Amino acid sequence: MKKHETRAVRSTTFRHSIICHSFELRHSSFVILLAIVCGTATGFAQKRAITEKDLWDFVWIGDPQVSPDGSRVTFVRVTVNEKKEGYNTSIWAVSTSGNEQPHQLTKGDHDTTPRWSPDGKLLLFLRSPEKDGKPESPQLSILPMAGGDSFVFTDLPRGASNPV
């Protein structure tokens, strides 16, 4: 081999060595950086278990009832009361078009079981009035959907239940 060929081989070998070393260094740096980022992201994304204290903040909904014309849905919204010893229930409504926020229809602390009249003009529901801070037997109430206040129209000693 001639002198200039030897230099070319050494130069090529040296360049190859630098390129390999540079690749290994970049690869190692990437792996280390990835490990740091993943470790940090995992630390931020860790979820905690639900505790019994979290239950006080939960809001449940149930008993959805679609209006006869299909334009609205009423439902019962359940929250834990301020004393954290029981539940408050109220009746809410929302448009089925999805273009409005749900709004509260009843102001009682124990309003449940909404049912539409066949023409959709009235909403029948159960209201348990409170006496001495405790709910009494539920009674049937009606809410005119065109506006106005709801009114209780039964006074049954054992209360009413399961309106159809």
Structural class: alpha+beta
Average predicted confidence as pLDDT: 80
Outline:
flat
Strand order of the largest sheet: 1-2-3-4
Quick structural summary:
The chain is an alpha+beta fold.
Write structural notes for this entry:
The chain has 164 residues and is α+β, with helices and mostly antiparallel strands. The chain folds into two domains: 1-47; 52-152, Neuraminidase, CATH 2.120.10. The protein is built from one helix and ten strands. It has one helix at 3-45; strands at residues 59-66, 72-80, 87-95, 103-104, 111-116, 122-127, 130-131, 134-135, 139-144, 151-152. The longest helix is centred in the N-terminal third of the chain and has 43 residues, at 3-45.
Secondary structure layout plus pairing:
Layout (H helix, E strand, L loop, with lengths): L2 H43 L13 E8 L5 E9 L6 E9 L7 E2 L6 E6 L5 E6 L2 E2 L2 E2 L3 E6 L6 E2 L12
Antiparallel strand pairs: 1-2, 2-3, 3-4, 5-6, 6-9, 7-8, 9-10
Offer a few descriptive terms.
Neuraminidase; 164 residues; four-stranded antiparallel sheet; flat; alpha+beta; 2 domains; 1 helix
